[in-house]
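Subject: design request, 277 residues
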């Protein structure tokens, strides 16, 4: 078993110690976080090291590195480099080696925008899960790797971007800046985390895939937002499953009606999309 957790693992870790019973031995993993973190996380699994890279940030390549160092909000030191480690479950080692250069590119790109990296290390852990996605606490991210035979279709998901397969990697890495280094105090501010993670991922899509991909991402985000909004165009699902505009839909007089309206709105926007809007 291997352990990935918030912070840097100490060089002499893990150590073996006596357990509660004289015959028992336990392994102790110690991590140290030298930057503030919002919460502590730990991932325990069978993991293999796929790659390890030290990224030296080139201040001159980015636009705002100097202002990050001297800006009024900057307290303390700026990270000049970042250690990237890629750990994977056994069947994902090849995938991990593939993703390592992409992760380097994404981390370098975000650092060039902000002028700093929140932490001096980052571990990307690839774990097998049916649906794509992941979780990104301070210092590491667990990125889901759906298996080819998963059978789960997620093409209609708002985060499925056909022309941008690196989306989830870019999104989870962005959470090191947005959601971790910059957090929120209450529910009303939580959009800062997901909103900016989406925006940074979209910026990386523009950087890596080009203007058309960026436009496609924004169009898809907009379409989904409108379809989910209570201010979506009023549409009404009839008993036969077809959609028809109906003013009564906006009244939301019952939960069932509202749900049927939302379903129908999404279908309506899908129709608009296929018609070239
Ligand atoms: Zn997220």
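Subject: RE: design request

Done. Sequence follows.
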């Amino acid at each position: 078993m291997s352990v990935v957790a918030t912070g840097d693992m100490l060089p002499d870790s893990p150590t073996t110690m006596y357990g509660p019973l004289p015959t028992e031995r336990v392994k102790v993993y110690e991590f140290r976080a030298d930057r503030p973190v919002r919460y502590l996380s730990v991932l325990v699994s069978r993991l293999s090291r796929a790659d390890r890279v030290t990224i030296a940030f080139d201040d001159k390549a980015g636009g705002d590195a100097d202002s990050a160092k001297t800006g009024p909000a900057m307290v303390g030191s700026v990270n000049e480099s970042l250690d990237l480690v890629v750990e994977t479950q056994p069947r994902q080692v090849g995938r991990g080696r593939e993703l390592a250069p992409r992760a380097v590119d994404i981390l370098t790109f975000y650092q060039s925008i902000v002028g700093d990296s929140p932490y001096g290390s980052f571990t990307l852990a690839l774990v097998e899960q049916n649906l794509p996605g992941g979780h990104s606490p301070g210092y590491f991210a667990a990125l889901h790797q759906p298996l080819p035979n998963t059978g789960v279709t997620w093409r209609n998901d708002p985060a499925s971007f056909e022309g941008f397969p690196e989306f989830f990697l870019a999104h989870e890495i962005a959470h090191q800046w947005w959601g971790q280094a910059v957090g929120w105090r209450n529910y009303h501010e939580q959009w800062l985390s997901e909103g900016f993670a989406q925006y940074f991922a979209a910026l990386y899509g523009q950087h890596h895939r080009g203007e058309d991909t960026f436009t496609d991402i924004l169009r898809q985000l907009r379409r989904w937002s409108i379809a989910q909004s209570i201010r979506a165009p009023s549409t009404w699902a009839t008993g036969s499953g077809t959609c028809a505009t109906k003013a009564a839909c906006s009244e939301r007089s019952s939960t069932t009606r509202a749900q049927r309206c939302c379903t129908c709105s999404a279908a309506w926007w899908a129709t608009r999309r296929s018609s070239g809007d």
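The two ends are 51 Å apart (CA to CA).
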